[in-house]
User: Fold this.
Amino acid sequence: MNRIAAFVLSLSVALPGAAVAAGFDVVTLGARGGIEDGNLSAFLISPQGDPRGVACDVGALVNGLRVAEAKGAFDSVAVPADSPYTRIGYMLAENVKGYLVSHAHMDHIAGLIAASPDDTKKPIYALPSVNADISSTYFNWDAWPNFGDRGKEPQLKKYAMRDLTPGAKTALDGTAMSVTAFPLAHSGVESTAFLIETGDDAILCFGDTGPDEVEKSTAIADIWTAVAGKVSDGKLKAVIIETSYTNAQPDKSLFGHLTPAWLLKSLRGLEEKAGRGSLKDLPVVISHIKYSLKKGAPPQDDILKELVAGNDVGAKFIIPEQGMKWSF
Ligand SMILES: [Zn+2]
Ligand SMILES: [Zn+2]
Assistant:
């Protein structure tokens, strides 16, 4: 090999670690809020071109990795020849570096629980109330062995339960990202939105939430205040947020969830803080729509129609399907 070729090779080998991160890769491990087991809320988020990421909610995990692998989402991930793992196993063991759990409802953690016996050691990042619920509800030796590092003995300590302080930035171990947690009101349960950052770029991943007006809360408005500057500067690359019901759902039956009308109203509040036109083409990924067992158009069709019809902020609404990958 001549000297220039060797230099180019060393440069290309050095680049992945040293590259200045720009944006995110997002793989949908679970697209729905119910009722299809194996496809519940979970988004694998990593810096663009860097496979080391975290899952924002873990309703699905191994099945999500399996479907994503089949759709080519991990084609660029090379499994070392001496690794005992398939690419799905390698992703779980080596590249899923931790979990962000918005709240302990089963549809947001079932994938983590199911995979835990074969998972590798890594942190679970959550608000204190959520980690307490995970320990008492699942890792209690009754529902499941205690794979955590708190609660009932013996503690298997596979998962280091890390309590996040609202509004405080925490490094995500083993990744080039950090996270800041914001509490959400979810019909009496504390849920969480996670602001994930790499370099100057950020992405917001919401757990279940009701509208501020219905929850008698300022939780979502406070998050908009916190991120308005990043929206104005174009540093917020995408928002993942739920819209569980169509506009036909009455407010008294929201059970801590959003409709298209409520999401649009909230986004107008963000635009007010970030500046007119600031949400133009902002990708907004709509999570937590239920899989329907009924004949006729699936609910995601109606929800997307209602979002598009009221979209005076110019956001780019995306209905995810399991295994889809985007670069934002
Ligand atoms: Zn849910
Ligand atoms: Zn929930």
